[in-house]
Write a structure and sequence with these properties.
Elements: H1 4-15, H2 29-36, H3 56-64, H4 78-89, H5 99-102, E1 105-107, E2 128-130, E3 150-152, E4 174-176, E5 201-203, H6 212-219, E6 227-229, H7 241-248, E7 254-255, E8 258-259, H8 262-267
Parallel strand pairs: 1-2, 2-3, 3-4, 4-5, 5-6, 6-7
Antiparallel strand pairs: 7-8
Helix pairs in contact: 3-4
């Protein structure tokens, strides 16, 4: 599927919400008739059902009993469990577009999604959208429900935040952009309270951000930011990286998955007021312990002085990608 909507439809088919013990069928056909008749009362859990049919309670037990052939797998998501149980207890709620009203958390991982399409707006109650490990390069904010509190886009191809910041969800608390293609310093201007007034957690790890002072000046406007992940960026190689961040962002509680204790904050006190200590360069030391598959120069026979034999020179190069 190329879009989030297409991936969701494929997900619904995989769940089998119309197959026994879910949905409407011969196992609960009286409920089917009740749904067709506007005056009929829905069959409750405790009401008797005609012979040959199953009560909603019995059908629900088939999903919950670990020994049942229809049991939900132990590692199934809360989203899977919710939709399957609703398909047993109230299958009419999953008819047509009403299924979108039930979904509060949508997880579509590694499904080849390339587009966050307008169809995502049908999830009017959506609070969590996880789209990790796909091929998304552009995220139009106009296609995101205003109810979103968590947006996770790690392991994608996002290189520009302009579209995402057009009209972002105002209540967003976590934004995950790790392992993308963000390059500084042009992206820092999109990481301010003007766009994310309620942001608590921000993951920018393993991108190509290089301007530490510029980024910090923007992040300092995020008054609710308590969790920040920047490891894996070139700016994290600078010698005063952690100390400068700890002193510059006093409300930060966790940096790169490491808790900031009062002793550490006291140790780096005043560093933020010394920008001359922030160097825009870093030193990386690489040690090569062993190389295999290459001829050892010492193994070649040394030519005697004055010999007219051919001289063969070997040279090797090592390339590093950062």
């Amino acid at each position: 599927p190329g879009s989030v909507s297409a991936a969701f439809q494929e997900y619904l088919q995989h769940l089998g919400l119309q197959n026994f013990p879910c949905g409407l069928g011969s196992w609960n056909k009286s409920r089917l008739n009740a749904r067709r008749s506007p005056r009929a009362e829905p069959v409750g859990l405790e009401e008797a059902v005609p012979p040959g049919e199953e009560t909603p309670e019995a059908l629900l037990e088939l999903l919950r009993d670990q020994h049942s052939p229809w049991a939900l797998p132990p590692d199934c998501s809360p989203q899977d469990r919710l939709l399957k149980e609703v398909a047993v207890l109230a299958p009419e709620l999953l008819h047509g577009s009403r299924v979108f009203q039930l979904v509060r958390s949508l997880r579509i991982l590694d499904k080849g999604v390339e587009e966050v399409d307008e169809g995502v707006l049908r999830f009017q109650q959506l609070e969590e959208l996880i789209l990790s490990a796909n091929h998304i390069s552009r995220v139009p904010s106009a296609h995101l429900p205003r109810t979103l509190k968590v947006l996770e886009l790690c392991y994608n191809a996002v290189g520009d935040l302009q579209d995402l910041c057009g009209r972002p969800p105002p209540e967003l608390q976590h934004l995950g952009l790790g392992y993308n293609r963000l390059c500084g310093p042009s992206q820092e201007k999109h990481l301010t309270a003007d766009f994310w007034p309620n942001l608590v957690s921000l993951d920018l790890s393993f991108n190509s951000l290089t301007d530490l002072p510029g980024l910090v000046s923007q992040l300092s406007t995020l008054q609710n930011l308590h969790i920040l992940v920047l490891q894996g960026n070139p700016l994290a190689l600078t010698p005063t990286y952690r100390g400068f961040l700890v002193d510059s962002l006093p409300k930060l509680s966790i940096l790169d998955d490491i808790h900031i204790w009062p002793e550490e904050r006291q140790h780096f006190h005043g560093l933020a007021r010394q920008p001359e200590l922030i160097r825009s360069e870093a030193r990386v030391v690489v040690s090569i312990g062993e190389m295999k598959g290459l001829p050892n120069p010492k193994a070649f026979q040394q030519l005697e002085v004055g010999s007219e034999g051919p001289v063969i020179t070997y040279s090797y190069s090592v390339t590093y990608e950062f």
